[in-house]
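User: Quick sanity check before I run a bigger batch. Here is a single chain. Can you write out its predicted 3D structure?
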Amino acid sequence: MREEWSPEGRKATLGAFLGLTIDFYDIYLPVVALTPAIALFIPTGLPPTTKVTISFMVLAVTFLGRPVGAFIFGHLGDVLGRKRTTMIAVAGFGVMTGLIGVLPGYASWGMAAPVLLLALRFVGGIFMGGEYTSANPLALETAPKRLRGLIGGVIQSAYPVGYIAVSATVAIILTMLPSDTLESPYVQYGWRIPFFVGAGLAFLFLFYYWFVAESEIWKSTRSKEPVNAPLRELFSGQNFRNLSQVFLLMLGLWLGVQTAISLPPTLMQTYFKLPAGPVTDGFLVGYAFLFFGFIAMALLGQAFGRRRMLILSGVWTFSVGTVCYWLMLENIRAGGAFAATVALLTITLLLTVAPWGIVTTYISERFQTGIRSSGYGIGYSLAVIPTAFSSFYLSGLSHFMPYYLGPLVLMVLAGVLVVVGAWIGPETRDVDMATMTLVPEPERGTSAV
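Assistant: Done. Predicted structure follows.
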């Protein structure tokens, strides 16, 4: 019998999409909104490479907070429920984002200003780690098996939507407020507007999510077979082996994201001295294409297998993706047409980041209901810790090669890790998420899980 997608499931999916959109909007505020105004928070006269490192650290501490949030809110999601935990997490990062918007600069508070900026981003990252830890498993637990791949891809497509939203907001502000000097309007106050917008969106989301129903799979499992110590269960036996495999896969995927998304804006603006406006516009173009890339990869994973497509994505990341990234950097260095830079950036994003369209569904299918929130959140987030220091790796690699070429090494390593991580894992598309047993489609063979 054909399984129907319930109205409750549709509402949960939209909630997960909206929550992740706001999450990603807030995550990339430092890269997009604060990079043109970073001079407000640091001493004058620092070399460009130091400014790149400082700018990236504001983003890095956010990513470091996310795994902490995954541990805390993963436990809560498995014990208290997916819905309640999601709302607590979103309210938390909404408050942190709003507080950053009122911070004074280095000239007023000295080193206290950047320290507070980093502290608020870290705490905000903890709450951000709780949003997808609960909302995404809830949505997948309400999805028909035949649609899980597509639904996971739609949820993950919030990634480019969130980035487009923050980029568009900043691009509009930059057309009205110059950002070329420390005293310019954007540096002094314009960057605060996107932070206030992010805080407002978080609280609007809470109103919508109030009407989302709790996962029936979670409620049934909780009443029959409650897991009161999900973290202990997750870090033992087969569950820990599953988590280790997911960690290796995500290590490659996160390194690819840091290399393809987080590093280029600061390299372009701070190292190559490109204007902030065109860089923001270029990423808007890339992310518009990336939205469809997520959906395409999700559908390919549903049709041909999630494991198979992840392996292939690793291969083309370390080969074609690396070449495109190198051509992009050389075009910038040679003063080539910016349109060519945008085209190469877009191709790099599609090759390296679009495979994330499979991630939400794949990780949700790797863990049983009683520990799914913990497994999903930690599996998704933990690998971000070693990859969050990409700017420091560039500094180390600069002893052996030009600074701007360091990302190529990271890109190759990212692809290799994805291939190995996916290779040692199982196929998951035919798993019943309530029972964690295989329920194969009649028209295709089964895979071991």
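Confidence is low (pLDDT under 50) at residues 441-449.

User: Great, the batch can go ahead then.
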